[in-house]
Design brief:
alpha+beta; 3-stranded antiparallel sheet; 3 helices
Length: about 60
């Protein structure tokens, strides 16, 4: 997975994806969030997603 979004984590995060059990967090911007979740699901990885702001507002920005 491309980790470019991690550079500006707190400013650009639409979703914070936490891998289980490692507890590594990926800070995903709008154009990476769904793609990363799809890749993780396809690999059978467990993860949790936290949306730091209203998702609908950010997706329509």
């Amino acid at each position: 997975m491309d980790a470019r979004c991690d550079r500006y984590a707190s400013e650009r995060a639409v979703a914070i994806i936490t891998l289980i059990p490692s507890m590594v967090s990926l800070y995903a911007c709008n154009h990476h969030a769904q793609a990363w979740m799809d890749q993780l699901e396809a690999r059978g990885d467990e993860f949790e997603v936290y949306y730091p702001a209203d998702q609908e507002t950010l997706l329509n920005a």
